[in-house]
Each structure stands twice: as structure tokens, then as C-alpha cells.
Design brief:
The complex is a heterodimer of chains A (about 110) and B (about 110). Chain A is about 0% helix and about 60% strand. Chain A has no helices and 11 strands. In chain A, strands 2, 4, 5, 6, 9, 10 and 11 form a 7-stranded mixed sheet that branches. In chain A, strands 1-3-8-7 form a 4-stranded antiparallel sheet, with no helix packed on it. The relative contact order of chain A is 0.33. Chain B is mainly β. Helices cover about 0% and strands about 55% of the residues of chain B. Chain B contains no helices and 11 strands. In chain B, the strands form 2 sheets. In chain B, strands 2, 4, 5, 9, 10 and 11 form a 6-stranded mixed sheet that branches. Chain B starts with a strand and ends with a strand. The chains are: A mainly beta (about 110), B mainly beta (about 110). Chains A and B meet through strand 4, strand 5, strand 9 and strand 10 of A and strand 4, strand 5, strand 9 and strand 10 of B.
């Protein structure tokens, strides 16, 4: 069966520091991968998606970037965090259908 | 106007009640409709997935889609305290680069009380 791992679960970072969040999927190959952000009182918002290694598309221009160095690995990064980057970051995968499955998320607080 | 509207609640019901959760949408390009359950500080868990107008049943859960009215519902029968969570509706559209984008409602917080 397929599983998705995200880490860390919680992160507190100072303004201006770098960020790296990692997501890996097991039990499948060539999945579509997604990064969503959930802010308080708002629905989940799609940030980045990838349909293959090295292929990254951005939905919302922002202070973040994404990379997919391996088939089942998706990384969310920032060179310098802003206060507005705080939120709950969720990685998701799907393959050949629109049923998307989410990881357990990373709660990021920028202080 | 938001593409997807969902009443945030909170909704409080007694154990055993039938719960009705609803979303409306404005984008006719949405093709698939999903309901997710999210416990506090956890990732969303897929509950129901539908495509066509009509009803789909899975155990105590029934998903209903009315594309002509752009309205979807989730019914929970015999609600249990373990059903207490935030319920998110989500609708998919095709991304130009491949893949599918989910557009979410803000979620309805449900509490089932003993």
C-alpha cells in the first residue's frame, strides 16, 4: 500500500532563516505531487505541483520554491522566511485519478 | 466571490443524529467532488469521492452532488463522537501542466456530543 511521509511535524523558525520541508511517497511510482498550505480560517491553497522529476509548476507567486530531485521526493524550500510564511504545509500525491492523499503536515511558525 | 463556499460552523449535534454538511461552488469546470475529514493538527483524510450528479453511499456516509445547482452535500448517519472533526469539501480541475488542482472550502467544524 502507498504511504506518504512528511517531516518535520512542527517547526519554529526565525524571520530570514532558510526552510526545507521534505515529503516522500512509498509504494507507487511516478506520482503527481503537490504542496498545499492551510492558513487559519482559509481553505487549503495549492502552492506547487509536479508531474515528474525536475518538473515543477507554481500556482501562486511567493517566497517559496519547490524541487523534485527523485521520483517520490518533493521538497519545499525558502532562502529567507517571512512572517507571512507561517502556516500548515501539506504534501499530497495522486496517480492517474483525482483522489489525492495527504501527509500529516508540517506546522511552521515564523517568529 | 470564493469559488467554493462552505459554512464554517461550528456545528454541534447529539450522538446518533444525522449530520448534513454542504458546499456551493461557482466554477463549472470542476469535475470531481470530494469530502475530506481533518482532525486537529493532522492531514486531511479522504472520505468520499464522486463524479456525477446523484448519491454515493459508503457505510454511514452519503455524498450527494447536484451539478445543475452547483451544490454538494455530505450526510453522516448515526453520528459518533469519533466523527468530531473538520470536514472539508474539495473540487478538482485539470491543471495545464498535467495533474489536478483541488479547490477547498474553508471547512465545517463538527462536534458530536454524548
Amino acid at each position: 500500500s502507498q504511504t506518504i511521509h512528511q517531516w518535520p511535524a512542527t517547526l519554529v523558525q526565525p524571520v530570514g532563516s532558510p526552510l526545507s520541508l521534505e515529503c516522500t511517497v512509498e509504494g507507487t511510482s511516478n506520482p503527481n505531487l503537490y504542496w498545499y498550505r492551510q492558513a487559519a480560517g482559509r481553505g487549503l491553497q495549492l502552492l506547487f505541483y509536479s508531474v515528474g522529476i525536475g518538473q515543477i509548476s507554481s500556482e501562486v507567486p511567493q517566497n517559496l520554491s519547490a524541487s523534485r530531485p527523485q521520483d517520490r521526493q518533493f521538497i519545499l524550500s525558502s532562502k529567507k522566511l517571512l512572517l507571512s510564511d507561517s502556516g500548515f504545509y501539506l504534501c499530497a500525491w495522486e496517480q492517474g485519478s483525482t483522489e489525492a492523499f495527504f501527509g500529516q503536515g508540517t506546522r511552521l511558525t515564523v517568529v | 466571490q470564493k469559488e467554493v463556499e462552505q459554512d464554517p460552523g461550528p456545528l454541534s449535534v447529539p450522538e446518533g443524529a444525522i449530520v448534513s454538511l454542504n458546499c456551493t461552488y461557482s466554477n463549472s469546470a470542476f469535475q470531481y467532488f470530494m469530502w475530506y475529514r481533518q482532525y486537529s493538527r493532522k492531514g486531511p483524510e479522504l472520505l468520499m469521492y464522486t463524479y456525477s450528479s446523484g448519491n454515493k453511499e459508503d457505510g454511514r456516509f452519503t455524498a450527494q452532488v447536484d451539478k445543475s445547482s452547483k451544490y454538494i452535500s455530505l450526510f453522516i448517519r448515526d453520528s459518533q463522537p469519533s466523527d468530531s472533526a473538520t470536514y472539508l469539501c474539495a473540487m478538482s480541475s485539470i491543471l495545464t501542466g498535467g495533474g489536478n488542482k483541488l479547490t477547498f472550502g474553508t471547512g465545517t467544524q463538527l462536534k458530536v456530543e454524548l
